[in-house]
Amino acid sequence: MLAACFAAVLTGLSLAGCATFSADGGFDSVAEGARAKLGKDVKWPRNESEQAKIDAQVAASLEHVLTADDAVQIALLNNRALQASFEELGISEADLVQSGRLPNPRFTLRHAGAAGQYDIEESLTINVLSLLTVPYAHDLEQRRFTEVQSAILASVVRLANDTRRAFIAAVAARESVEYREQVQSAADAGAELARRMVAAGNWNRLDRAREENFYAAAAQSLAQARLAESAARERLTRLMGLPGQSPDLQLAHPLPELPPTIAAMPDVDAMVMRNRMDLRLMRIQLDELAHRLGLVKATRFIDVLDLGPARVLEGARSEPYERGYELSLQIPLFDSGAARVRKAEAIYSQAADRFAQAAIDARSQIRQAYAGYRAAYDIATRQRDTVLPNARLIAEQDLLRYNASLVSVFDLLADARERIAAVDAYTNSVRDFWLAQSELDAALLGNYALLGNH
Q: Which among 198, 223, 222 is positioned nearest to 210, based on CA atoms?
């Protein structure tokens, strides 16, 4: 028993010697992962000076027209919720360092006396079981620390993806407002012509009602588009960590043109095993539970064991102390620890089943995201190559017919409205394509709904 105690003390002392805080707090691996996956910088300001540098960098970026990459970089530097998640590293590292510290010894004194006779017991004990399990506990916390690093990197990637999608939506909303303003202008012209035609007695009430309905619908559509743009810009500014919707926020537009070709269907199995951050995180958690299960099994019978030197005096002060040791342990008479083991086994089996299902879901998500990406590209290219040219051709032909007095000015206005609607539909299809590409990128990297729970 004493030899085992001595060995445990040596092991604990060796761990205590290396249980110190790191210089970077575990953040360097997160920053390197962000650069590898996103090509972007993330920073963790620890003092006012570092925060001031980030604020200056963000302010400088906001002075020019922002691209999607600019918006993502600002969000990664300026989003306070992301900054708050970095503090999880400090919490986890504190637990890691604490797990390598030796347990404090406990001193016990019992003192009684009467008529010059004394009964004194003194003991100094240490939790031997804690010493014996220090390596296991430290290893568990090391795995937990790695898990926190992976979860934070997932938060970085998730924020980048959300910001890129919000930027695309905001730019598309701005373009939609511009096109609807053109429709409104056409409606204004039509309404003015209608008033003149009615005044001249050349129109009946039905024609006038139709034109007024179109004018009202155009005005309502423009109001809705402006509201959608406001909401899209608000979401973008929130993700970028800006204090309010700045009217000076300049977004590059229009959206990028469609690429000449799109990527082929990725190797789903390879992408799942190599890139999915949620599966990697679940794998770390599964390993952690396996080690925790081993610790529970190792301590199922005895989970309290204190040992240390003791001395006892019974009699007068001049009498010598009796010296020995005190051992305190919990006898597994009623509780053999079977319930704790069974619970740990069930938790591990549950995690293993969830991991297996997550791998199946990941493959399906990638296939589904690619199908949406492919379909969005086909729709947008058809809109660009067929619908837009036809709308332009119809407008040109009707203009010739108008010059020949074969159609009315209202027919020309209707053609203009249809052409504007076709351009607006094309803009929306381009937006949907870039959003679908973002969705595919997200599916290749991980299930963000799942990662958000960690």
A: 198
Name residues whose C-beta falls within 8 Å of residue 26's C-beta, 6 or more positions apart in sequence.
89, 92, 93, 145, 148, 149
Residue 379 is assigned to a structural domain of this protein: yes
Q: In the predicted model, is pLDDT for residue 294 greater than 50? A: yes
Residue 184 lies inside a defined structural domain of this protein: no
Distance CA 26, CA 214 (A): 61
CA 167 to chain centre: 17
The CATH number assigned to the domain holding 290 equals: 1.20.1600.10
Q: Residue 20 domain-assigned? A: no
> What would the mean pLDDT of 7-14 be, rounded to a whole number?
53
Q: With residue 416 as reference, give the H or E element that holds it.
A: helix 409-445
pTM: predicted TM-score of the whole model, two decimal places: 0.76
The Cα-based distances of 48 to 45, 78, 84, 236 in angstroms read 8, 14, 15, 26
Convert 187-207 to b/e letters by CB count within 10 Å (16 or more is b): bebbbebbeebeeeeebeeee
Q: Does residue 147 form part of some domain?
A: no
Residue 7, token pair as written in the block: 């060995």
Lowest mean pLDDT among 76-85, 242-251, 320-329, 378-387: 242-251
Q: Using one digit for the tens of pLDDT, what is the confidence trace for 342-395?
A: 888 888 888 889 888 888 888 898 899 999 999 999 999 999 998 888 888 877
Say which amino acid occupies 21. F
Nearest CA to 263 out of 383, 168, 366, 374 is that of: 374
